[in-house]
Amino acid sequence: MPNEVSGLSPFNSLSQSSLTGGQNNMTLDECKNKLLESVLEGGDKDFENLLSDIKREEPAMFERLATARFGSEEATLLHRAAEKGDSAKVDVILGFYPDLVNTTDKSGDAPLAYAAKEGNVSALNSLLGKNADVNAKSNNGWTALMWAAFSGAVNAIKTLLGYESASTVKINAVNSKGYTAYCVAVENGHEDAAKALKEAGADTNIRPDQSQNTDLMMAARGTKLTHGMAHFLMSGMGPEKQKDYLSHKNTLGQNILMWTLGNSDFRKENVQVLLDVGVDPNSKTTSSNETFLMTVSKNKHYHDIVPILLKADDIKLDERDNAGRTALMHLMSSIKDENDLPLVVQLIEKGANCELEDNNGDTVRRYADQKGLGTQVRKCIEWYQASLTE
User: Considering the chain, what is the average pLDDT of its residues?
Assistant: First the structure.
């Protein structure tokens, strides 16, 4: 089929200059761009007339436009209309191309997923009314419900769950990561979306991967954990169950505080929320026998987290790991230069024992010597010990 088609100038709905730029020929790509521009910016009637004219004047091109793709996602016109939330154009496109309703882009997402991600309820209703598959999955197993949960689009979630033809929606369907829509909402900090899914019967006890992380662990490692989300996740639990829930360790032996450190978008505020709701900062990992303070002291986030932990009344400073090291030793090993010494001083002032030895018989002074900061640390220790006798 030739790529360049002549004879488009007789189109009645739009002038020759607006449709072809004054040319007598229009390539398929040029026609696609005109249609896309109309989807994004044009009026509904112009768009419908344009498709009608193409169908009448150039049926071969009309058929090719059914499979035309746009952008890096290789989306169809229907995807773009659904994404924009233009239900009128969704209806027009499906009127001409009814088989497009469940067509997918490069990632396997159908138009319903595009509308759900953007929270476009009117487009969702149009698609569902044309028998869109509410349980269709992308290449990675994502459903439209998961995309609505990802965006926190509560109205879209309720639309997908409540549509009359969607009574068989699989609310606990899992993607390739093992996540349900509820997991997606929790991890992305959308409390209202998580509540809507829970009220609709979502399984809140699901452990989505081999690590056996709780939903609070998912939220803590997500983009933003709020006090409201934490309290929602613990709602309905008695004291003993809540205690077990907050102290849960995954199969890696990590408690919830340890788990937060693995997030590339780590937020110190998440740690503060966890401490506020009662997570024990002194809980140890199963493998290395480290407290969170020890782990953080040798982590790149020590600047942000050590001061927060030192404000906790019940923080234990002198716990030891399997090598006999304390948090003070770990911190001394991690600091870069003397500019970090104020953190060491904070630990000493809080009461960290400077005389403890690790399994090799080394005290924090030895760690300081290895950093070339022995003189400064000894002065800090002497100053602190002198202040206790005053």
Answer: 87
